[in-house]
Automatic annotation (TrEMBL):
The keyword Repeat does not apply. One of its GO terms (molecular function) is metal ion binding. It is an enzyme of class 1 (oxidoreductase). This is Cytochrome bd quinol oxidase subunit 1 apoprotein. One of its GO terms (cellular component) is cytochrome complex. Its EC number is 1.10.3.-. The chain crosses the membrane at residues 20-45, 57-78, 98-121, 128-149, 192-211, 223-240, 323-347, 359-380, 404-432. It is found in: Cell inner membrane; Cell membrane. Residues 441-467 are annotated as: Disordered.
């Protein structure tokens, strides 16, 4: 029944499904690890038990998120060898070492300190436990750095050579491969997105509990911290996104033109198309709502600057316009909604009503999942916009696929969908159950020194309590 389908399309759908599912967990764990580090630092500095309570509250959630991220990430490596073996053979000498560095540095660092972080608060000293938390947070950042180095090389390849077998091999310097033209922009943009995603999730949980008990100190504290993050980081993310867009226009112009819906060149300044329905067959955007000159002002910082159009590029090199056109607008729209929520919280804070404004709490609750939607939309924009290439401009997606029949790819795709929805559906349900429970209202503190178990035996305990 699947023989009439295209194996390459099925493999792309499978990878898109698994990577979209996977990406939300690292985005959450990167932000949560740093949030836990801040909570523990504040507890050590102030001695206030509310920070220790929040640390324990979010530590359980982090453990589940981290585990789900690791499990879903294993599937990604599996697909490189099954569905994309030609790509692995050709690009493996470059991306293989980078992914190995991620395992040897980030994953080993996280694995080495994760147990102390999760189970050692009452068993090791405060300083050592805080060091473990810092190392886990650092590990998540290093992991993001290596993975984004791989992706940035695929987007803006540099520093490589091509040998007689047509393989991409490292050039004289690995630095040119790691620090490609787009790498700094992608790294900063993605890490900030992870922080915003976490802030909105934490703020949504805090708002949920404030709507039920506005006097809960843990809910008040987490909501306040989340709204500070949204208010400060959202405008920074918009600025970074603009810089990232200018960089993409320089190195991947067809992607930006597809995002903007510009089929025809604009010699006297391009308009900004707010909404519309792209029609690539007719090479136009139907029902377009546009602002004259604003596109050139954003992309060139000059309203009269000329811009090319997709018609200036070969038709076979166009990305799917409709997908990136709308995914980009979802991401940007949610970004401005985050900015609005942050500004609203600042106004409420200035009026001294941050914990009393029910509509602000309801808005924060609704916006709780928006960070996850935004990062998926941004990832779709980035990856679909790179099409029809796996290595931009050098290796096409149709040339990267394994010689598999469509029914085989379809069978594994169906298996992934079924397993993911059952396994990860249960995990997400458990996470929501954890978040639905309010944080501990009392400001209790962990022991000031480790609990000592050495030398204590059941017989000794029984002898001491027998009479």
């Amino acid at each position: 029944m699947f023989e009439h389908l295209d194996a390459v399309i099925l493999a792309r759908v499978q990878f898109a499904f698994t990577v979209s599912f996977h990406f939300v967990f690292p985005a959450f764990s990167i932000g949560l690890a740093s949030y836990l580090m801040v909570l523990e630092a504040l507890w050590l500095r102030t001695g206030r038990g509310v920070y220790a309570n929040l640390f324990r509250y979010w530590l359980k959630i982090f453990a589940v998120v981290f585990g789900m991220g690791v499990v879903s990430g294993v599937v990604m490596s599996y697909q490189f060898g099954t569905n994309w073996s030609v790509f692995s053979e050709k690009a493996g000498p470059v991306i293989g070492p980078l992914m190995a560095y991620e395992v040897m540095t980030a994953f080993f660092l996280e694995a080495g300190f994760l147990g102390v972080m999760l189970f050692g608060m009452n068993k090791v000293g405060r300083g050592l436990h805080f060091l473990a938390t810092c190392m886990v947070a650092l590990g998540t950042m290093i992991s993001a750095t290596w993975i984004l180095a791989v992706n940035s090389w695929m987007q803006t390849p540099a520093g490589h050579l091509i040998n007689e077998q047509g393989q991409f091999v490292p050039g004289p310097s690995w630095w040119a491969i790691v620090f490609t033209a787009s790498f700094p922009y992608r790294l900063v943009h993605t890490v900030i997105a992870a922080y915003l995603t976490t802030a909105l999730a934490v703020g949504g949980v805090g708002a949920w509990h404030l709507l039920r008990d506005r006097a809960n100190p843990g809910a008040r504290k987490m909501f306040s911290m989340a709204m500070w993050m949204a208010a400060v980081v959202a405008p920074i993310q918009i600025f970074v996104g603009d810089a990232h867009g200018l960089n993409t226009l320089e190195h991947q112009p067809a992607k930006i033109l597809a995002i903007e819906g510009h089929y025809e060149p604009s010699p006297d300044g391009a308009s900004l198309i707010l909404f519309g329905i792209p029609d690539s067959e007719a090479r136009r955007v139907d029902y377009a709502i546009e602002v004259p000159k604003l596109g050139s002002l954003i992309l060139k910082h000059d309203p009269n600057a000329p811009l090319p159009g997709l018609n200036d590029f070969p038709r076979e090199d166009w990305p799917p316009v409709g997908i990136v056109f709308w995914s980009f607008r979802i991401m940007v729209g949610l970004g401005f909604a985050m900015l609005g929520l942050g500004l609203w919280s600042l106004w409420a804070r200035w009026r001294g009503t941050l914990y009393d404004r029910r509509w602000l709490h309801r808005a924060a609750l609704v916006m709780g999942p928006s960070g996850f939607v935004a990062v998926i939309a941004g990832w779709i924009t980035t990856e679909v916009g790179r099409q029809p290439f796996t290595v931009y401009g050098l290796m096409r997606t149709a040339e990267s696929h394994s010689p598999l029949a469509a029914p085989a790819v379809a069978a594994s795709l169906i298996a992934f969908v079924v397993v993911y929805f059952f396994a990860f559906g249960a995990g997400i349900y458990y996470l929501l159950r954890l978040m639905a429970k309010p944080p501990q209202p009392g400001e209790t503190q962990p022991p000031s020194r480790p609990q000592r178990a050495a030398g204590i035996t059941p017989a000794a305990v029984g002898a001491g309590t027998e009479h």
